[in-house]
Write a structure and sequence with these properties.
Elements: E1 2-6, E2 12-17, H1 20-23, H2 29-43, H3 101-117, E3 121-124, H4 134-144, E4 149-152, H5 159-165, E5 171-174, H6 181-186, E6 189-193, H7 194-203
Parallel strand pairs: 1-3, 3-6, 4-5, 4-6
Antiparallel strand pairs: 1-2
Helix pairs in contact: 2-3, 4-5
Length: 205
């Protein structure tokens, strides 16, 4: 599969060959759904917590006689009393689920293929900037119609480009090792540098 390469100025910069086994798959929504759920659950903090019966601050003394009138309660920490502990309340835990490594790799391939299929994958030669000016880069993105995009650079993102792009709404910039399914599907366009493409193809080789 062949794709045109452009520059940040919108000029043509040749073509590049994409691997069909990475960018040319028939998209499977079920695999993408499993991966999105895996990422979202793994990102949940799971720090929700309430005080249970053993953590209450009320007295633990039996407040009524066992017999002779009154219900047979043990202490005021019971859930039915005001100020008592919560019954079956949430405690800190991990929400993460397991997903095989091969399925995770396949999901990334399907996410990349979905962008190719919809015509939303753009390849540029590089994103190097001489100065990190947000206003200039916003103008460039406007001319290229990159209003909602994920931009993936090589192992190290150009510092001036990262500084200039970080305050532009709906624009995400990541190094290639940070590429993930949720970030790809979240944005309308996926922009890959030639360095990112080489790293991805080496990763799936």
């Amino acid at each position: 599969m062949e794709l045109k390469v452009t520059t940040l100025d919108g000029a043509a910069a040749g073509t590049i060959q994409l691997a069909d086994d990475v960018f040319g798959l028939e998209v499977r929504q079920d695999i993408l759904h499993r991966m999105v759920r895996y990422q979202q659950l793994k990102a949940m903090s799971g720090t929700h917590d309430v005080k249970n019966r053993s953590e209450g601050v009320r007295t633990g003394k039996k407040f009524k006689k066992q017999k002779g009138g009154g219900a047979r309660h043990g202490d005021r920490k019971a859930p039915q009393f005001r100020g008592g502990g919560r019954a079956f309340g949430p405690t800190p835990r991990s929400h993460a689920i397991d997903l095989p490594k091969k399925v995770r790799a396949l999901a990334l391939k399907h996410a990349l293929s979905s962008k190719v299929k919809s015509g939303s994958l753009i390849v540029i030669d590089n994103v190097s900037q001489t100065i990190g000016k947000t206003a200039a880069l916003r103008t460039t993105f406007g001319k290229l119609e990159w209003l909602n995009a994920l931009i993936i650079d090589g192992a190290v993102v150009d510092q001036n480009f990262a500084l200039a792009a970080r305050n532009i709404p709906h624009i995400d910039v990541l190094p290639v090792q940070g590429i993930n399914v949720v970030s790809i599907l979240k944005r309308d366009k996926l922009v890959l540098t030639k360095a990112a493409l080489e790293a991805l193809e080496a990763r799936f080789a």
